Amino acid sequence: MASPTIxxxxxxxxxxxxxxxxxxxxxxxxxxxxxxxxxxxxxxPAKFWAELAEQELHWFKPWDTAxxxxxxxxxxxxxxxxxxxxxxxxxxxxxxxxxxxxLIWEGEPGDSRTLTYAQLHREVCQVANVLKSLGVKKGDxxxxxxxxxxxxxxxxxxxxxxxxxxxxxFGGFSAEALKDRLNDAxxxxxxxxxxxxxxxxxxxxxxxxxDALADNGVPSVENxxxxxxxxAAVTMHEGRDHWWHELQAHADAHCPAEExxxxxxxxxxxxxxxxxxxxxxxxxxxxxxxxTHTTFKWTFDIKDTDVYWCTADxxxxxxxxxxxxGPLSNGATTVxxxxxxxxxxxxxxxxxxxxYGVTIFYTAPTAIRAFIKMGDELxxxxxxxxxxxxxxxGEPINPEAWMWYHTVIGKEKCPIVDTWWQxxxxxxxxxxxxxxxxxxxxxATLPFPGIIADVVDLDGHPVAPGEGGYLVIKHPxxxxxxxxxxxxxxxxRTYWEHIPPQDGQYLYFAGDGARKDEDGYFWVxxxxxxxxSVSGHRLGTMEIESALxxxxxxxxxxxxxxKDDIKGEDIYAFVTLEGQYSPSDALKQELKDHVxxxxxxxxxxxxxxxxxxxxxxxxxxxxxRFLRSLASGEAIAGDASTMEDQSVLDQLREG
Length: 655
Ligand code: WTA
Hints:
Elements (H helix, E strand, L loop, with lengths): L19 H4 L7 H13 L1 H12 L8 E6 L2 E6 L2 E2 L1 H10 L7 E6 L5 E5 H17 L8 E4 L4 H13 L3 E3 L6 H11 L3 E5 L2 E3 L2 E3 L1 H9 L9 E5 L13 E3 H6 L10 E2 L3 E7 L7 E6 H15 L7 E4 L6 H13 L3 E5 L10 H9 L3 E4 L1 H10 L2 H4 L8 E4 L6 H11 L6 E3 L34 E4 L11 E6 L14 H9 L11 E9 L5 E6 L3 E4 L2 E4 H9 L4 E11 L3 E10 L7 H14 L8 E4 L13 H8 L15 H8 L1
Parallel strand pairs: 4-17, 6-7, 6-8, 8-11, 11-12, 16-17, 16-18, 18-19, 19-20, 28-29
Antiparallel strand pairs: 1-2, 3-13, 4-5, 9-10, 14-15, 21-22, 22-23, 23-24, 25-26, 27-28
Helix pairs in contact: 2-3, 4-5, 4-6, 4-11, 5-6, 7-8, 10-11, 13-15
The protein binds 5'-O-[(S)-ethoxy(hydroxy)phosphoryl]adenosine.
5'-O-[(S)-ethoxy(hydroxy)phosphoryl]adenosine binds next to helix 11, strand 23 and strand 24.
């Protein structure tokens, strides 16, 4: 495991207090108020969460035990009965929010649609009944492979309503990747669309589902429900494939929400890890509902007048927690956008903000860096005065990008919440509370109340302020992942065994390097394992290597991240070829396309370098740190004496 390095952020000393215009109306409006909450929570986290669960959510039946902790397995609100679709929809219908906009959707070729809470509820109930009519029962897994259209959120809520765990697979994944995930989850049904619009093109989603299911590729899938979006020609397989709009038209709009155990599985979401295939991260109902509800409410200081927009895709955890569940549980208005910025429409984000009067805008550093490159004229030409709060997620934000976001977009009046969290954590872990915690450019600041976070060495001892170490969480929290789907052992190994327990206290290992400064602020420095982040998308180097070696020309492959000004990191692959093949540009292209076929467009290597051999230790392990240096054009740091064949490095350098 590489140890974290401390870069320029060490010298960052700017401090931005929440502006008075913000604190005036903020629910948590001073550092003292934050500290009081955090102290109360730390004294007895289970009690703290139990009180919030009672205040904030609807329960069909109260729980018996707030927390049952058998490390590393946690159960929250044991015995409680709850339904997250009920909390996101039904409970708002008896209030004035009934006709409030729940979901505002801005579609690609100029389409748009707004669904009120009552309308969203109606459609969710209909689709829940459609799923039932297709034989989906409580506990059955449903795959969702969709573009960013309202039906994606409706599908998720419909599954939650009847207690069928969903597994959303990002529309940018290939048929192969889709097949792996559907098989791992043993999905009974897949919800998809004929296609989706992406960057002035369309992508053929239904065709990818057909490929995944061909030759009985996913034996568990019995039915496919297809939304009509692009009107592309698709083949409908008799008896297996059904049009969403046809079945919805005949479906009853009444469907009571299933009373779920708090610990019943809500969803599986696949994410990349260090070894092997992507892990199915399991989240359950009650704790996830409470935690996404509370973090959304406090971190975004949400008001009924807010128009909130998160630019993520529902295929990622950010979309699950902070486009769908967190906002709707709070009765907020959430904007969903089908497009992505691109040369033909570089100002599209600012257009959406102006069009809907967005007040809270939540995006990723990679997008911010891309906008900086496009120049200040685009945002300056739009009216962004509705904005009152900004957020960022996905990777460390460099102070320069933070300052641009603060001045050009936020006009120095919007606090920035830099939210550190993961698929595994379900919700924000380290983040400013915007009316209370002063911010520093590049720091996620302080833990959310109830989260006991620290930076430790590999023995589990806290490191001194300013020193690099590993980010850990010391007490279970309601939305922590419960396990890796079907693999408790992998869950234990990946998250709980890197660092030994301290005085009987188990430490959750996040896989991120970090440091804490004198004020206790967290500075996250990035992954310390073989996970790379390309435009904020998490990819395991192993996954890409496996994809490469599945091509007949490739003998061996090693993949590392190379620093990239916009994407954060780019994929750099070193490849050795089988004897009968020789290097060529055509082969490079072919290998890149092959990775796209195996995983998806997000995994396309930026660079492939052919090599005669890879640097290895005497025991045959590839020395990645050398490859990382080579990829970034730096001098090779560290001792090369453990290498089996010293000439390999010279060759790589020259080649
Ligand atoms: C990184 C995304 C620095 C981190 C929600 C983490 C961040 C991984 C931040 C999880 C942040 C996320 N500052 N790094 N504010 N937010 N990360 O599972 O390396 O897709 O471990 O969840 O993204 O990525 P994931």
